[in-house]
Backbone:
């Protein structure tokens, strides 16, 4: 099965939201101004995703998800690498993410646990930060960072 990896467009919004919802991830603020997403797809379905929300010196990595049947094949690493390449090309210094369940995965590819307050200070206007703050979720989150 051929898997294509590309930057998502506005026309991919519905398919990306459907995929993320099936993975149990939030679909709010997908593909809004100041974000970029990538999808991996077969001829019929989105099978993986990753996105970045940009700040002035950092970005928030979000929506990293791989369809269960495609896990363990390196696709997650390819998605994260694509996002990190973009962040470096944009001259950013750090990439952060929230993860309460996949921290060991991200630690294995170079992320280190970081105070949530540090993430919020670096990315106060990131859509996911704003949403999590409004929902009162920041105190239950775990933040991770990789330096570029």
Residues:
């Amino acid at each position: 099965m051929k898997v294509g990896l590309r930057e998502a467009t506005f026309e991919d919004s519905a398919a990306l939201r459907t995929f993320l919802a099936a993975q149990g991830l939030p679909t709010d603020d997908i593909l809004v101004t100041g974000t970029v997403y990538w999808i991996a797809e077969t001829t019929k379905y989105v099978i993986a995703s990753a996105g970045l929300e940009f700040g002035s010196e950092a970005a928030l990595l979000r929506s990293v998800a791989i369809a269960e049947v495609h896990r363990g094949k390196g696709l997650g690493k390819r998605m994260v690498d694509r996002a990190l390449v973009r962040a470096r090309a944009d001259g950013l210094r750090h990439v952060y993410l929230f993860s309460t369940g996949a921290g060991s995965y991200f630690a294995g590819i170079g992320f280190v646990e970081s105070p949530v307050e540090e993430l919020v200070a670096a990315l106060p206007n990131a859509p996911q930060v704003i949403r999590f703050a409004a929902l009162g979720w920041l105190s239950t989150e775990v933040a991770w960072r990789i330096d570029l």
In short: The beta strands are 4-7, 35-41, 46-54, 58-66, 94-98, 112-114, 143-147. The helical segments are 13-22, 75-89, 103-108, 116-122, 127-135. Residues 4-147 form a domain with the Aminopeptidase fold (CATH 3.40.630.30).
